[in-house]
Amino acid sequence: MEPKYKAKLLKKEEIANDTMAFYWEKPEEFTYKAGQYCDMTLNKPKVTDEDVKERAFSMASAPFEVGIMTATRISDSTFKQWIEDFTVGTEVKFDEPRGEFTLHENVATPAVFIIGGIGITPVRSIIAQATHEKLPHKLTLLYSNETPQDSAFMDDLNGFADKNTNFTFIPMMTNTDSNEWSGESGLIDADMLKRNVSDINKPIYYLCGPPGMVKDMRQMLIEIEVDEKNIRIEEFSGY
């Protein structure tokens, strides 16, 4: 099916090491829930290979925000190299937003996000929207990166934490020294989780990031006897 919406690039910027954010005009009638994704199709790809000209991207912007923001790690793939070279005015096509990686409705149930790298994109949307709407959900974000320079949206996330008393932001670095980082270091494990989540059996857990990390975090939760029905995984990881 032909993608339904057309959008032009308004600006782009580097937001972390090898990580770019792209800001698009929001097409009329394009609506989505915080945390959803859609397929982006290049309008005039340099080749006709269908596998190359289309990729799925989470909306990193929140529905209340004016435009659409997507973000990605820039890799050596042909598609990623093309979008890195996009100029203002470049037009792409979006299909209908979809996905169930959205905030649960029960406000009495906390949410714990265990996120790695560019897996932060749908979570930035969820937390921005929850902060904007002043939702009463208790939200905890464990956000893992190698270094502060690799960490996207840190200013945004710290800003949400300042505005939203229900949101706890815990960034973690796996490869840094004490001179450049004074926060949590090392890998996310069961001990770290228990230090920051008072009742590990109460929340809904949201996992997104590199496939290996998501697999390991899911296994960790199962080993500490978190109910599998309380674990949500974003199948599209953006890698």
TrEMBL record:
SUPFAM superfamilies, alphabetized: Ferredoxin reductase-like, C-terminal NADP-linked domain (SSF52343), Riboflavin synthase domain-like (SSF63380)
Gene3D superfamilies linked to this entry: Nucleotide-binding domain of ferredoxin-NADP reductase (FNR) module (3.40.50.80), Translation factors (2.40.30.10)
Highest rank taxon of the organism: Bacteria
Record domain FAD-binding FR-type: where: 2-104
Record Pfam families: NAD_binding_1 (PF00175)
Cofactor field: FAD
Gene Ontology MF terms: 2 iron, 2 sulfur cluster binding; metal ion binding; oxidoreductase activity
Keywords carried by this UniProt record: 2Fe-2S, FAD, Flavoprotein, Iron, Iron-sulfur, Metal-binding, Oxidoreductase
Claim: DNA-binding is one of the keywords in the record: no
Protein known as: Oxidoreductase
